[in-house]
Amino acid sequence: MADQLRFDGRVAIVTGAGAGLGREYAMLLASRGAKVVVNDLGGTHSGEGASTRAADVVVNEIKANGGEAVADYNSVVDGDKVVDTAIKAYGRVDIIINNAGILRDRSIAKISEQDWNLVHDVHLKGSFKVTQAAWPYMKKQNYGRIIMTSSNSGMYGNFGQANYSAAKMGLVGLANTVAIEGAKNNIHCNVILPTAASRMTEGILPDMLFNELKPKLIAPVVVYMCHESCDENGTYIESAAGWATKVHSVRGKGTVLRTSIEQDSISLEAVQKAWGKVTDMSEAKHLNAIGEASGYLLEVLEKLKEGGLSDFEDVFKFGSKDLIVYALGVGATTKNSNDLKFLYENDPDFTAIPTFFVMPGLMLSMTSSLVATALPEGKANLTNILHGEQYLEICDDIPTNGKLTTTGKVFDVMDKGSGAVVVTNCDSYDENGRLLVKNQSSIFVVGAGKFGGKKNPIQGVVPVVAAPNRAPDSFIQYKTNEDQAALYRMSGDLNPLHIDPNFAAISGFKVPILHGLCSLGFSVRAVLAQYANNNSALFKAVKARFAAPVVPGQTLKVDMWKEGKRIHFRTSVVETGKDVITGAYVDLKDTSAKL
Ligand SMILES: CCCCCCC[C@@H](O)CC(=O)SCCNC(=O)CCNC(=O)[C@H](O)C(C)(C)COP(=O)(O)OP(=O)(O)OC[C@H]1O[C@@H](n2cnc3c(N)ncnc32)[C@H](O)[C@@H]1OP(=O)(O)O
């Protein structure tokens, strides 16, 4: 079958694969071409005894079905031995499903130290040991898919399972960090929270539920997360009975418990008074990275220092006319029949060019006063701020009109010597509270560096990514118009730098320069035309650095490299040969290559 998800050439280790979920993972992986190490110590569900039988039976079953498998009888605590089995038999390891587990259920008062240690050894230490042993191989291959098995017993607690619950939440923490450390080597780590009928849950779950909780209904969810096409990393998926969902942690908005930076103590009574706000989850949000949490704390401190640098909020209304003016501003033309959908409101496919959605909150997030307040010496005004970088992510279906509410904040401040970089984050929601767009803008403040600040970004600042080291796969050229900036301004960025020769001169430019976001709009149009059939719905995200200014009338050449669903691009000016957008990429939901 042409579009079957295959694992040919991949080597998978499934721990605890002699029965239940592990057996299903092993069978499914093998049936799709993976070579499988079927690990099972062959003990009882409480971890007593050992036998080679359980693993052998599964290996024989796989072989009888025409697959490849080898048995491994080691305890997962000896992770290096388990991984050795894979290396000796097949020379590599691509997938680890840490599934082995035992139960020693007792109420907290009765858990012996041995009950605690054994459960932690198999679940938590075992997952760590197997993962760590495979790490050098995965790193060298620049590829790995790891699954940690957690449980609702950990997430929510379950009477009589304190040892098991603790180990299972330990696995969530382990996965969080493994996901971060592996990301740059294409090693992904995700968590499954299964509810399955197995030796371990027999007698615990009601019969009706038990009969519906077939492990084979969970196996495809887990095995999909082990496939190279699955981008997920650091995600928790709960699955049972032919159902699956992502699980998130959320954090409330919280409240500041002191009134100024000078107040260095908080009374118990102040905490009691504020408790309602501390525990209010009405505006709870998920945070993607530890940097977001510490970034928020830094911001609270900044607010206290400044006596209240507040988050900003902006309302942005738009309709078909705005989409059309924007499309004209970034070069869409009726000469190209495929652009009509961006220019004519009655076209059956009328839609926005996705980069239109950089607009909500932009003016507020880049105003010189906001940028100035973020800098210790306040050295920012309209004449020394340049747009440095932009990240835009479309989170849901984009409408052709509506009212978006944007909440934004200063997220990071860097001291780059020649200038300061102020990073703002903006999230835009529609009238139903649906998160539609995320924007991150970096503003380069020329001459405002050397204030003794840190040089590097906090986690959560989206990095630029260098283009592959080969000739571009394709390119498209667009000539901008002498009045391009005059037209683009009409979409809302009225900065005089782009039209007023005197103002441009004060800012150090010979002539007014083009908006960075205008060049970005042209570039993303090129990517969509080349790799997405001009279909805005296929657009997911873009990141770009504005490396040098563009003058209206210059010709933009967009070089492109396709790497799966990521299209790297670099934009240069044909007349000067200078790179103007670098480190840039568009992530597509899917591609439809131009023939
Ligand atoms: C009504 C009110 C509205 C207000 C809204 C305003 C929004 C818009 O109107 C504004 C615009 O659109 S401006 C036009 C678009 N932007 C540009 O043309 C900027 C082009 N870039 C440059 O000229 C240089 O990169 C420059 C000058 C930015 C930096 O060059 P250098 O000083 O030479 O820096 P360099 O030595 O190369 O690097 C020093 C450190 O800074 C980092 N860096 C470089 N370029 C960056 C950029 N563009 N963004 C973020 N960081 C950048 C480098 O990585 C380096 O850091 P490190 O040493 O840590 O690597």
From TrEMBL:
What family does this chain come from, according to its entry?
Belongs to the short-chain dehydrogenases/reductases (SDR) family.
Query: By which gene is this protein encoded?
Result: 101897498
- What superkingdom does the record give? Eukaryota
Q: In which pathway does it act?
A: Lipid metabolism; fatty acid beta-oxidation
Q: Where is this gene product found?
A: Peroxisome
Q: Which UniProt keywords apply?
A: Fatty acid metabolism, Isomerase, Lipid metabolism, Lyase, Oxidoreductase, Peroxisome
Tell me one GO molecular function of this protein.
isomerase activity
Claim: Transmembrane is one of the keywords in the record:
no
GO CC entries: peroxisome
Q: What is this protein called?
A: Peroxisomal multifunctional enzyme type 2
Report the residue ranges that make up the Ketoreductase domain in this protein: 10-184
State a single Pfam family of this protein: adh_short
The biological process GO terms on file are: fatty acid beta-oxidation
What is the first-listed, main subcellular location in coarse terms?
other
Q: Where is the signal peptide?
A: none
